[in-house]
Every structure is written in structure tokens, then in C-alpha cells.
Amino acid sequence: MLLEGGNAKINKPGVPTASVVIVTYNAAATLQTCLDSIYSQTYPAIEIVVIDGASTDGTVAILQANNNLIHYWRSEPDAGIYDAMNKSIKYLTGHWVYFLGADDELFKGFSGLAQELKQPDTVYYGRVISEGIPTFPVSAYAFAKIGICHQAMIYPKSVFEKHRFDTRYNISADYALNIQLFQSAEYHFEFKDYLVANFNDTGVSSLNTDTAFEQDRSAMVYKYFGLKIWLRFLFWRLKNRLKSKNH
User: Fold this and answer.
1) Pairing of strands 18-24, 96-101
2) Measured at the alpha carbon of residue 104, what is the angle toward residues 98 and 107, in degrees to the nearest 5?
């Protein structure tokens, strides 16, 4: 059964709208805190879109209670996190797109980063708190190894006019997309030193391995980063595997 709602409208002429997408499934324990962290932002043009996977725990009641502050929400069965994220795209009216977990929280730095959004061919990213410490800007090699936490990144909407998340990857589809974008001629990544969000490192993506992505990852690194970084990546991965076997 489909349920949907949302009445919030953005009326800030001349201010680029940032669309914040939250994908939920049985997120009643954390969703209101997540929403409150968005409401507390000082950036004046934020729209919220929530795609829920037919929750049964009270998540929908929270969405209904926040109906006048959410631009759009819908609740229906889906095929997983990235199917829901792909589904969200057609409901966004913003110039910029940001994906936030229902168990994450925005810091004031999100508004600071949003003020920096100038170039439509740029993916902007800041820092998040992960495992209790702030993340850092990355080189091409560091990106190939560990990527960028997607809660640190704000994409231009045009990315999703050309691309979607590959749902073959049930945990790392954002990483797979970012690998394509990081070295592309269409977009470049720019770091701005703002602390954007608290990333919950006990969620699905942190506690599980995306086997399909890991099988394809080496070929992706070679294709988009070239021989030198690929060889360094293979050496790094071999060291990690040997270390794991010895523990």
C-alpha cells in the first residue's frame, strides 16, 4: 500500500535549494532526531524528501506528524536502500542533492557547506564524524582505497539527470557512482572544511561487506584511476587481507 504526503514549500528566490533525501525503514527510534537536526539549520532553502520502505514501527506516524515541514514523503515496499534513493530523484526540486541516513544527524556545518555551493560541475564535500573522529580530504589514491562518506557530500542535481545508483551493489552503490565521477571530465570534487554530519557507523553499510562491489572494485579502479593507482590499490588490499588472516 502506498502512503504519501508533504506540504512544505521553498520560497527563497535567488537561493539555490538543497534537497535532503532520507531513506527509511523502521527508523522510528532515530528519525525525529534526524529531522530536528535539519530543522535547526540556518541555510534558508532546504527541502526534505523521505522515501520509506513500508515501515511497520511508527516511522510513518512520525512522517505524518512532520507533514508540514517535509516537502514530500512516501511509504511503500522497495528493493533496498539504493532503489529508494533512485526513487527519490523525481521528487526533488532542488539544485543540489544530499543523502542523509535516518540514524545520522546534521551539524551546523551543513549550512556552511551549503553556502559554498557555486559551481554546477562540482561535487562538494566536507567532514563527518565517523567512528568518533572527523574524516579528512582525500587524494585520488586515498579515494580509491576508502572513498568519501556520502554523508559528507553534496551533489549537483545534474549528476542524477545522467546517472543512477547501481542497485546490484546493495551497500556500496554510492561508492561505485563516486568512482565514476571522481575522475570524470564532467565533474570534479572540492573539499570545504566544514563538519557536516555525525555518521552512524553501526548501520548496515558499516557492519557488512558488499560482495558484488568488492568483486568489481579492482576493475573500476583500473578503469577510472589508471595503472599506477591500481597497482598501489592492489598492494594495499593484499596487505589488508594478509593482516586479516593473521588475526
Assistant:
1) parallel
2) 75
Residue in the structure block whose three cell numbers are 521553498 = 10
pTM here?
0.94
- Residue pointed to by grid coordinates 502512503: 3
- The domains of the chain are located at 3-245
Distance CA 122, CA 137 (A): 15
Helices (H), the chain: 31-39, 59-65, 81-88, 109-115, 140-146, 159-162, 173-182, 204-207, 211-225, 227-245
Those residues whose C-beta lies under 8 Å from the C-beta of residue 89, and which sit 6 or more positions away, are 97, 160, 164
DSSP state of 120: T
3-245 sits in which CATH class? alpha beta
Residue 27 φ/ψ, nearest 5 degrees: -110, 25
Evaluate whether 69 touches 92 at the Cβ level (below 8 Å): no
pLDDT tens digits along 191-243: 999 999 999 877 555 557 899 999 999 999 999 999 999 999 999 999 988 87
